[in-house]
Amino acid sequence: MSKACLLTALGCLALSSPAMAQSTDVADLFRGKTVTFMINFTPGGSTDFEGRVLARHLGNHIPGKPAVVVQNMGGAGGSIGTNYLGQVARPDGLTLGYLTASVGKQALGESDLKVDLRGLEFLGNVPDVNVTYMRTDVKPGVAAPADIMKTKGFWIGGLTPDSPKDLAERLQLDILGVEYKYLSGYKGSPEARLALQQNEIQFYNEGLASYRAAIEPGIVKSGMVLPLWYDPLDEGGRLVAAPTAAGIPARPFHEFYASLKQSSSLPNDLRWQAYLRINELSTSFLRILMMPPKSPPAAVAAIQQALVETFADPAYQADAKQTFNNIPEFKTGAERKKALLQVLAPQPGVQEFLTDYIAKGYQSVGDKK
Question: 251 forms bridges with which residues in the sheet?
């Protein structure tokens, strides 16, 4: 985390959290207890890589120094774990969730998400970008990202047709005009990655943590796959390259598209607007940290402050860098919560397009496009 971001985050909490976190009463909430750090995806993916490193250091910054244990609860593109946090987990201040894709699922009105994120206790968000990669042996051969335009009928993998991950893959390929076949239903990225290694699918995307930790040193280095592009970040409607993706031999998607068309102009049709919506949901608010509804305010404030301190902890940063060659950024405070509420609001026109697009995705799973 940059010094500026850290100061901003600390400033948002300065009125209440620091003093509260130092009080004996707050320490008593956690001393001798165990905090459950729930991750809403299976082990081995980006959410798991990031969450486990964070959990290793979080207890050092929570008053009373409680034990912190990780609980993976994957399935339904992240909805099973999110539903558990909002419906089942006890609001005793001893459970928090590291959640991926939940904001996108609610913003898109997906039926498997049974909780309203606005009712959970918001701690902060962690932006991320996905890297899209492809097997190099797809005929007639993929030696450079632009070679995808020569291919025909390869299989792409996904979690659920209404998952932001699946939607991003399909929208990007449809925008490019590339023919593909679609196979969804993998429980998580580790399962989809194995399917790709077994040549069941040939195209997939993963977050930076698992890309850096598992894809880059393994199947990229071996020559089995090639990175094609990665998600751009959205800065107030302006698409920019993600600094954390530096060193990946690929461009952000909007630049890849422009290079193919040999033009700096980007589309402005409804499909492109839908892609921008999915991209925003898949980057800025890809991951959020939440606690169950009605958790004790003192515990929420203490955990929030502990997260600020953990992300700024050199020991955590060194661990993250060593484990997945990236240091995530934590954003918190009233402005971030306001931004979350704004991104959850539906966008007329785009929402209807995506509802129809999701329905077509369910119809096309396993079928040739």
Answer: 229
pLDDT class of 264 with cuts at 50, 70, 90? confident
Within-domain flag for 350: no
Q: What is the pLDDT of residues 141-192, one digit of tens each?
A: 999 999 999 998 999 999 989 888 999 999 999 999 999 999 999 988 899 9
Q: Are strands 251-252 and 154-157 parallel, antiparallel or unpaired?
A: unpaired
Angle, nearest 10°, between helix axes 314-324 and 297-311?
70
Domain count, the chain: 2
Residues 62, 27 share a domain: yes
Same domain as 300, residue 170: no
110 and 157 in a single domain? The answer is: no
> Are 70 and 197 part of one and the same domain?
no
Report which DSSP code applies to 118.
G
Query: What's the pTM?
Result: 0.80
Q: Is 288 helix (H, G, I), strand (E, B) or coil?
A: strand
Burial class for 222, CB neighbours closer than 10 Å (0-12, 13-18, 19+): exposed
Q: What is the enclosing helix (H) or strand (E) of 67?
A: strand 67-72
What is the CATH classification number for the domain harbouring 265? 3.40.190.10
Q: Distance of CA 169 to CAs 100, 181, 307, 369, Å?
A: 17, 11, 32, 14
16 pLDDT band, cuts 50/70/90, is very low
Q: Are 131 and 105 within 8 A, CB to CB?
A: no
Say if residues 106 and 117 touch (Cβ distance below 8 Å).
yes
Residues 300 and 297: their CA atoms lie apart, in Å, by: 5
Kindly give, in sequence order, each residue whose CB lies less than 8 Å from that of residue 360, ignoring residues fewer than 6 positions away.
none
Mean residue pLDDT of the chain comes to: 91
Q: Which domain holds residue 62?
A: 3-127+283-344
